[in-house]
UniProtKB/TrEMBL annotation:
Keywords assigned by UniProt, alphabetized: Cell outer membrane, Membrane, Receptor, Signal, TonB box, Transmembrane, Transmembrane beta strand, Transport
Family that this chain belongs to: Belongs to the TonB-dependent receptor family.
Lineage: Bacteria, Pseudomonadati, Bacteroidota, Cytophagia, Cytophagales
Bilayer topology annotation: Multi-pass membrane protein
Record PANTHER family: HEMOGLOBIN AND HEMOGLOBIN-HAPTOGLOBIN-BINDING PROTEIN 1-RELATED (PTHR30069:SF29), TONB-DEPENDENT OUTER MEMBRANE RECEPTOR (PTHR30069)
Limits of the TonB-dependent receptor plug domain: 151-228
Annotated TonB-dependent receptor-like beta-barrel domain residues: 302-740
The keyword Transcription regulation is assigned to this record: no
Pfam families: CarbopepD_reg_2, Plug, TonB_dep_Rec_b-barrel
Protein name from the UniProt record: TonB-dependent receptor
Major subcellular site: membrane
Compartment list: Cell outer membrane
InterPro entries according to UniProt: Beta-barrel_TonB, Beta-barrel_TonB_sf, CarboxyPept-like_regulatory, Plug_dom, Plug_dom_sf, TonB-dep_rcpt-like
Amino acid sequence: MIFSAARRYYLLLFMLGLGWPQTGRAQTVARFTISGTVRGGRGETLPGASVAVPALNTGTAADSLGHYSLSLPAGHHQLVIAFIGYQQITREVNLKKNERLSLNMEESGNELGEVVVEGSVTLEQKLKTTQMGVEHLSIKEAKLLPALFGEVDILKTLQLKPGVQSGGEGTSGLFVRGGSADQNLVLLDNTVVYNPNHLFGLFSVFNSDAVQSVDLYKSGFPAQFGGRLSSVVDVKLREGDRQHYVATGGVGLISSRLTYEGPINKGKGSFIVSGRRTYFDIFTRALNKANEGKEDYSPIPDYYFYDFNAKANYTLGEKDQVFLTGYLGRDIFGFSSPNGFKFSFQWGNTIGSLRWNHTFSPKLFVNTTVSVSDYKYTLTNQLANVFNFNLGSQITDYTGRTDFEYTPNDRHQIKLGAMLTQHRFGVGRLSASTGDGRLDIGSDVHYYGLDGGVYASDNYKATDKLQLEGGLRLTGFRSGTDQYGGLEPRAAARYALNDKTSFKLNYAMMYQYVHLVTNSGASLPTDIWYPSRLSVKPQQSQQVSGGASFLLGGGKYLLTNELYYKWGRNQVDFRDGAQLFVNPDLDQEFIFGKSWAYGNELYLEKKTGKTTGWIGYTLAWSWRNFQPQNGTNGVNGGRDFHPNYDRRHNLTVVVLHQLNTRINLTASFIYTSGNLTTLPLGRFGVQDIPGSSVGIDPRPVPVYPDRNSYRLIPYHRLDLGVVYKIGVRRDQDLTLSIYNAYNRRNAYFVFFDTVRDKATGRTTGFQAKQVSLFPVIPSLTYNFRF
C-alpha cells in the first residue's frame, strides 16, 4: 500500500535527517544553539524578523511562527534583532550551553514606521533566500492601498504582483502563471479554504482586521505544500494583543467591521475575535417595503454577506503552546415576488483548527494540527405551497498533520512532516416536491476520498555563496477502489555573486487530486469539487524557473527578473453539453488535455523611506490542447488555444507616499492586455422565400472561429487614496479611496444586439456592444482603535 511505503520512507528520512553530519569545517570550538520566539509589543509573533551576529557575519530570520534558531560558537556574542517598523534591539549573551531566548520588540516611535510598506522579510533577506516566485504581504501594506468601495482585500492586492492575473473587472480571483482558479491552494492557518470569495468573487473572505500576513508562492514550492498546481496562498491570522484589551473596527460604504482582542491569564495567552457584515439588505428591504403594493413594481433582491474570525493561543509551559482558530462566513441572496415565488441562495465556509507547538530542544520543534473545513451551497425555489425545488453541493475535509523542523547546525535546516485528509464530496443534492404530494423526489450523489502525503526537505548552506534546497513529497489518493500516487521532487539553488547580486534556479512537480467542476471561466458558488476516480486521473504540472536579483541604491531597492516555463497533463475540461449537476456518471463528462505556459516577470520594489512601492511587468503566454476523445471532437477541434485569462502584457505600478505625520497618499495603476473571448465571425440563414408556404426558421445561425480568438480592448485603471490620521495618538483615520479615478470604461464582456429596419422591422444586421461594470467610485471609510 502507498501509505505503508510512505510511512517507512518518512521514518527513514527522519532518521537520516537527525543524524546528518556536518561537513566542510573542522569543529575546533564547541558550538551551542540559541533559539526562541520574536514578538512585537502587543505580544504577537513577528515572522521574518532578523536575528544576526554582525561580528560573525551570520544570522537568521524568524519563520512563519516567529521562531528562530541560531548555532554559534561558545562565548560572548552580541545579537542584533531588527524588523521593519520596530525599534532595533541588541542582546548580550554568553553561550555555555544551548539556550532559549525569547525577544520582544517595540513599535518604532518614528511615525514613518506606520507607513512603511512592510512585508514578512526585508529586501536583503529576499535576496539571500533560495525561494523564487514568492510574494510577502502584510496587512499594513494592503490597508494603505485604495480599494473598491473602501473594502480592503488582500487577494486584490496580490493581483498587483507580477505573474498574477485577476478573473475580471473587480473580482478577487487569482490566475497564477497560466493556471486556472481551482489550481490555487488557499490556506487559513494551515486549513484549506475551498471558496475564498464573497459576492460572486468581488471580495475575498479574509477580513483585513484579523489577518497578520500573506505569503504567495508562484514557484519553487516548499515540500510541505501540495495538492494544487499553480500557487499557494498562505494566510496567517493575528494572535491578539497580549498586553491590553483593544477594540478596532471601521465603518465603510458597504460594510462595517469590529474586532476585540486582549490577553488571557496575565499575558500567558491572547485572543482575537473579529466580525464583518455588509448592509445592502437593509436598504433593499426598506425600499421594497416602501413600494409594496404599487402597480408594476418589481421587488429588489436582498443580498448580504458576513464573516466571523476567532483565534486564541495559550502558553502551557516553557515548551508548549496551543492555538485555536475558527472561521464562519456566509453569503445570502434572496428574492420574493408578490405572486408567492421565493428564491434563496446561500453559500459559505466553516473552518476550525487546533494546533499544538512543542519544543523538544533548541534544535527541534514540532507543530501538530487537526482541522476541519466545510464548504457548501444551497439553492431553494418555492412557489407558494404548490412546488418546492432544492439543489445543493458540499465538500468536507477532516485533516491531521505533523510538521517537524530540525536545525542540527548553521548549515542545515531540515523539515519533515506528514498529513492525512478524509474528504467527503457531496457533488449533487436534489429534492423536489409539490404541496399535494403528487411529486416527491430526491437524489444525493456523494463520494469519499482519502488524501495523504509525507515530505522531507533540507535547506543546505554549502558555502557562503552557494545555498541549496532539496525536497521530496510522496502523495497518495484513494476514492473507492481507485487509487493514485506519485513522487513530487522539489529543488532550488541560490548563488551569491556578491552581497548585492544573486542568481536562483527552482524546479517543482505537483499533483492535484481534486477538481473544480465548472462551465465558466470564473469561480462561482455553484461550482462542484470532484475527486480523482475511475477515468478521472489526477492533474499534474511541472515548473522550472530561473532569475537574478540585485540590491540597488545602497540596499533601498530590490530588482528581480524571473523566467518560468510550466507544463501540465491531465488538465480538465468538459464535453459540449455536459450535464454537471446531480449526475452519478459525471466521470463520462470529462475530457483531458495538456497545458503549457511561459513568461518573464520583472519586478522593482522599495520598502523604506517616505516613498515606497513597486513596479511589476509580466510578459506571458498560456496554452491548452484537448484532443478528440470519449466520442467528442475535443476542444477547438483538437487545435491549440489560449484560455480566456491569457494576457500578453501586464503592468502594475504602486506608490505610497508619506506627506506628513498625518497624511499618507497612495496610488495604483494597472495596464493589461484585454481578456480573450469567442465572438462569431458572421451569421447565415434563410429569411423568407417568396411564394413558399413552408415555414422556415428565419433566425440566423452564428459562425464561430477558433476558441478565444478575439481579444477585448486593453484594460487599464488608476486608483487613488488618501489616509488622514486623526486623534491625539493618531490611532484613528479617515480613508478616502477613488476607484477608477479617470472613469475608464473597461470591457467586462461583449454581446451582439440585433439591428432592425425601422420601417419594416426586419433584421438588417448585428452590432457588437460592450458592457462595462464599474465607473469612477469614491468611498470613505472611518477606522478606529480604542
